[in-house]
Amino acid sequence: MSFLQPNGPVIDLGVNIDHVATLRNARGTVYPDPLRAAMLAEQAGADVITLHLREDRRHIKDADVIALRPQLMTRMNLEAAVTREMIDFACSVRPQDVCLVPERREEVTTEGGLDVIRYYRQVEAAVKQLQGEGIRVSLFIDADEAQIGAAADMGVPVIELHTGRYAEAGQGELAHELERIRRGARFGVSRGLKVNAGHGLHYQNVQAIAAIADIGELNIGHAIVSHALFAGFENAVREMKAIMVAARLAA
After folding, report:
1. pLDDT confidence of residue 112
2. Whole-prediction pTM value?
C-alpha cells in the first residue's frame, strides 16, 4: 500500500536489509542493528522487509531472522536457497513469504535466476513443504517464458523477475533488457502470477521498471543502504518509494 496513495495499491517496496548486517559483521559488533533498520524502513513506508539468509551467513544470521519475525508490522520476505537446512529453518520461523533463490558461495551477489526447469523436482518439493506451513512462496527467476511457465505449472502464486541484466546493460542493450522484463511480467500475469522484480535497482534506473504496470513489488537493498549513509535510513526509503510511485503514476 503506497504511503502516497493510501486508498489503493500503486507499487510496493520491499527493503532488503542484508547490507546493514554486512556492515555490522565487518567489525564483529552488534551495530548497526538490522532490526532497527527494519523498523525505520517500515515507518518510512516500506511494504515488505526482505532478508537473505545465505548458507555462509555472510550478512544476515539466524538470530536476526528469529528476532525480526515477531517485530515486523508489514511482511517478512525471507530469501533462501533450495536446501534442506534453509527450508527447514524457514518452516520453523514461518515468515509470511519465502523467495527461493539460486546460491553459489563464491558469488558476490545473486548472479541470475533460479533454473526451475532443470531443478523442477527439488524446487517443487521445497515449495510443497513451505506451503504446508502456510507460507507464500515466490521463485526468483529470469524473465524467460519457459521458466515463468514452469513456475506457474508448479503452483507458486508469486515470481520475482531478476533485473540484474537490465541494471548492468549498456546503452545499446538497455531497451532490449527492459522489453524482456516487460514481456516476462506480462506473461506472468497472464498465467495468474503476482509478479515482483528486483536486483541491481537504484535511484537512477528504477523508474523504467517501476513504470511496468504488471509488476506489483520491487525489492531493493544495496542502493537504499548506501544512500542512507548520506541521507539517513528513513529518508533513503522515502525517496525510493516516492520515485517508484511517481514513475508508476506517470506511466
Report:
1. 83
2. 0.94
